[in-house]
Amino acid sequence: MKRHLTTVLPSILLGAGTLILPATLWAADPAAGAAGWTKEYPQADGSAPRSCVTCHGRDLTRPGRQANTGKVIEPMAPSVNPQRLTDPAKIEKWLTRNCRWTLGRECTADEKADFIAYIKTQ
């Protein structure tokens, strides 16, 4: 069954003072997210391999630049950009778009959770 963050994130529940997280987020691994962030993915069209670093850089507290358009990307780190990771629809939209462009396919729910776990540590 295919899961999307828009269905997973809203399912975070607060009940009787206890935070209940879906299994995908419990299993999220910031180290795996960091490894995926820097991994270079070969491109089917023969262009240079891409990684998340290609546009966002290694320091997520700093702005990035979209490789094709040159558009400035605001820092990803919630520590300097509190608006990051606050809207599940935006998270799903950008992970879907960027996974397709960078990895050449959609990311799995586990990969998305790992990327978010990594970004949250920045």
UniProtKB/TrEMBL annotation:
Keywords: Heme, Iron, Metal-binding, Signal. It comes from the Bacteria. The keyword Lyase does not apply. Residues 28-122 form the Cytochrome c domain. InterPro entries: Cyt_c-like_dom, Cyt_c-like_dom_sf, DUF1924_SHP. Pfam families: DUF1924. Residues 1-27 form the signal peptide. It comes from Allochromatium tepidum. PROSITE patterns: CYTC. This is Cytochrome c domain-containing protein.
